[in-house]
Write a structure and sequence with these properties.
Blueprint lengths: L9 H18 L5 E7 L10 E4 L3 H12 L7 E6 L17 H4 L3 E2 L4 H10 L11 E2 L12 E11 L5 E12 L11 E3 H7 L5 H29 L2 H4 L8 E11 L2 E10 L5 H9 L9 H16 L3 E5 L9 H7 L3 E6 L4 H4 L4 E4 L9 H14 L6 E3 L6 H11 L6 H8 L1 H9 L18 E4 L2 H10 L4 E5 L9 E3 L2 H14 L17 E5 L4 E10 L2 E10 L11 E4 L5 H18 L4 E10 L2 E8 L7 H9 L3 H9 L22 E7 L1 H9 L4 H7 L5 E5 L19 E7 L2 H15 L7 H6 L3
Parallel strand pairs: 4-5, 11-12, 11-14, 12-13
Antiparallel strand pairs: 1-2, 1-3, 6-7, 6-9, 7-8, 9-10, 15-18, 16-17, 16-18, 19-20, 19-22, 20-21, 21-24, 22-23, 24-26, 25-26
Helix pairs in contact: 1-2, 12-13, 13-14, 14-15
């Protein structure tokens, strides 16, 4: 670094000469060329860039001085080492003998070992060792000059604040001149590597990962600098931040590996080549700027939410703690309506309305009267009401109705809350319309069981094998596959003895009673559809695949997003979810619908009249760039959400930003590792890696494995995000092995086998 007081003076020339000579002296043994280029907001397209021999100090100094005269205040001249791309190559028809062999490409002596590594990658087209000529790079002929390529990588800040690579594009040109977007035709990295003779898919994937990792690091350093070193004014004012950059790389052989070297970072002009490539490849149109546009959507919707007052009924447990800071980040005033059991949540909201014994939901009509009185007493005016807690869906609907706010009909939420009522209601709808199947086709025979007499009647209406579970339950607690009448009787007796009231297992619906149901067992793959509905119209739907459960119990074990089902099957599941949601009367909100894809099509398990819990919100943000929680907030205050994935059911146009595969951490399966090598605190630390995500559901750090397997709830979810499903699953399996989380009898690996 040489700080110059003026462009022309003896001191300036002396400083330049001294700095250049010192720099060249340190690199001459390794680099035979240097690059001299200007740096500043108006310098682009390789304008002013030139190459010099590292042994010619005078020429380098002259090049620096000639640029210096053209600089504006704040600009600079950079002198840096020149890195060649992969060994010289020539474009050729596929039918011709590879010119790697026919023309004996020349390789600089200093790069001999690296070149041999590249040749090894070329397999049968590689040169023999004695064919690598040890002379300086030179043209083979006047018509076939050496060529090189530059890689432009577009990196955007996501809506959740992390960098993501959205596009990679190459330009191929003569190595004797700077390669840029103005003098090259855009082509993909994959095609360019093929042109250079690198065709092995796994090698390509590793190289892609290396470039991706370096690109993310560059953007992270910019984000960190802006956050920690610059004031709001220095960043450009309120909300100003770097959103999108284009990073130029040279892929160069170094120490027998190919290394991505950053040569430049661009801002305002960085998307041109990427979008030119997208017009060449129409299937990819929009990929380059999609994360950037996602951020625009989120900022716009966040602006609309600022200053709104949202009432949230029920705090829920530790798994819902993410709700409060998220709502506050939207600029909303948050009012929690609950009892005093969750003191941690009370500290994170603006106002608290205390409703004693709110978990006794058979008294919801009485609770509404108390809520209205206390809102008036505390002078709180709500713009919207919602809940994220399954047990409070009916109560939230009652409050919204009483206040005349946007919400779902109370009758609809009551039907959705009762699993038997849901299926019986759908089974009664046998009318078909020209554009959809009869709703009854999605439901299965179901009967409510509150006494031995009910069970006897249910066994006549529902054929076995069947599933017995709590009528108002959640998290699959108390759910079991039953194959004989005796098993039904035994499970009913055991469950109703263990689970009598809310205090026996908080948060699983016992505030409505401990009635059971018997429903016909549905064979097939299990899926969740999280669907966004506004004014009775579907805004978006997102399908998650669930892994096999450990029968005869149904606690979730593993999952992946996006779904691996055929696109038509994903659309069929989403359409079934929307049809069932609308048939029971739900009109506004984000709903979690559990279904199975059978050999005869989708079948409904149950409807949850609120946003999906556990990891669903985080995964949707990462995979689709859609914040379901923000959708809930918007709908609750009467704003129609806009999703960057487009409106409607899943389609081929929806392109995931990443792929997530995860497993549930279960006390009965992972207790040994959780008590020794891998406590929950270590799993939380892993989340510092953007590819690893741990969501903790329970606050208690002490792992209790004494609970019966059919009554347990997961402690958390460990997920890996990767470039595709196979990559994510492979990394997750490796992580489970390293962490000792394979589980008893390799239970974790079992849960991933069909995922």
């Amino acid at each position: 670094i040489a700080h110059l007081d003026s462009k022309e003076s003896a001191a300036t020339e002396s400083s330049i000469s001294e700095a250049v000579e010192k720099f060249l002296k340190g690199i001459r043994d390794e680099y035979f060329r240097v690059v001299v280029k200007p740096s500043g907001p108006l310098w682009m397209g390789s304008r002013g860039v030139s190459f010099f021999s590292s042994s010619d100090s005078a020429a380098v100094v002259k090049g620096v001085k000639s640029l210096l005269a053209e600089l504006d205040e704040g600009d600079a001249v950079l002198v840096e080492s020149y890195h060649p791309t992969l060994p010289s190559h020539f474009v050729m028809p596929a039918r011709d003998v590879p010119l790697h062999t026919a023309l004996k490409p020349t390789v600089a002596t200093a790069k001999r070992e690296a070149a041999k590594h590249i040749m090894e990658e070329l397999g049968e087209w590689a040169l023999d060792d004695d064919e690598i000529t040890e002379i300086a790079p030179m043209d083979v002929s006047a018509d076939l000059s050496e060529i090189s390529f530059r890689l432009r990588v577009l990196v955007a800040r996501t809506s959740y604040g992390k960098p993501v690579v959205s596009k990679m594009v190459c330009g191929v040109g003569l190595s004797s001149k700077p390669v840029n977007g103005d003098n090259t035709i855009a082509q993909s990295l994959d095609a360019t590597l093929d042109q250079w003779g690198i065709t092995d898919p796994s090698f390509k994937a590793d190289l892609h990962d290396a470039v991706n990792e370096e690109s993310v690091k560059v953007m992270e350093s910019i984000i960190e600098y802006e956050s920690n070193q610059l004031s709001s004014d220095e960043r450009g004012g309120r909300g100003a931040q770097t959103e999108l950059i284009g990073i130029d790389f040279i892929l160069t052989p170094m120490d027998k590996v190919i290394v991505p070297i950053v040569i430049e970072v661009n801002d305002h002009d960085c998307t041109l080549q990427c979008q030119i490539l997208e017009f060449t490849l129409p299937h990819s149109i929009g990929e380059s700027v999609r994360p950037w546009v996602l951020n625009m959507f989120q900022r716009s919707q966040t602006f609309q939410l600022q200053g709104k007052t949202l009432g949230v009924v029920g705090a829920g447990g530790h798994s819902k703690m993410f709700v409060w800071p998220a709502l506050k980040s939207f600029g909303m005033r948050v009012v929690l309506i609950d009892d005093k059991t969750n003191e941690a949540a009370m500290k994170l909201v603006d106002d608290f309305v205390h409703i004693p014994n709110i978990a006794e939901h058979r008294r919801d009509e009485d609770h509404v009267v108390t809520i209205l009185e206390k809102l008036k007493l505390q002078n709180i005016h709500l713009d919207g009401v919602t809940t994220f807690w399954e047990d409070c869906t009916v109560l939230a609907a009652l409050v919204a109705e009483a206040l005349g706010l946007q919400g779902n009909p109370v009758a609809a939420q009551k039907i959705a809350k009762s699993k038997t009522a849901t299926h019986l209601h759908l089974l009664s709808k046998r009318d078909s319309l020209p554009h959809r199947a009869s709703t009854c086709l999605y439901a299965v025979p179901t009967a409510k069981v509150t006494s031995p007499g009910d069970l006897k009647k249910a066994l006549k209406e529902v054929r076995l094998p069947g599933v017995m579970k709590l009528e108002y339950g959640s998290s699959a607690v108390g759910t079991k596959l039953v194959t004989t009448p005796d098993e039904c009787k035994a499970h009913a007796k055991e469950t109703q003895n263990l689970l009598k009231a809310e205090g026996d297992h908080p948060g699983i619906g016992l505030g409505f009673g401990n009635a059971l149901l018997l429903m016909e067992y549905i064979n097939g793959s299990e899926h969740d559809v999280d669907i966004v509905v506004y004014g009775g119209r579907v805004i978006g739907a997102f399908v998650t695949d669930n892994g096999p459960t450990r029968l005869p119990y149904f606690c979730e074990t593993s999952s992946c997003m996006p779904s691996r089902l055929h696109q038509d099957q994903q659309a069929a599941l989403a359409f079934a979810a929307f049809t069932c949601v609308r048939e029971v009367g739900l009109t506004d909100g984000v709903f979690n619908v559990e279904l199975k894809m059978t050999s005869t099509g989708p079948k409904l398990i149950e409807i949850n009249g609120r946003m999906g819990g556990f990891y669903i919100r985080d995964w949707c943000k990462r995979v689709w760039g859609v914040d379901l929680l923000q959708c809930v907030a918007s709908i609750s205050v009467g704003l129609r959400p806009v999703l960057a994935t487009g409106e409607g059911l899943p389609s081929a146009d929806m392109r995931p930003l990443t792929h997530c595969v995860g497993i549930m951490i279960l006390p009965t399966q992972h207790v040994r590792a959780l008590r020794t090598t891998t406590p929950l605190s270590r799993l939380r630390q892993l989340s510092s890696d953007d590819r690893v995500y741990f969501t903790q559901f329970e606050e208690d750090e002490v792992v209790d494995s004494d609970e019966a397997e059919g009554m347990e709830e997961p402690l958390g979810n460990l997920a890996i995000c990767g470039r595709d499903h196979r990559d994510s699953k492979r990394r997750l399996v490796s992580a489970l092995h390293l962490l000792g989380l394979e589980g008893t009898e390799s239970s974790s690996l079992f849960s991933l086998q069909n995922l």
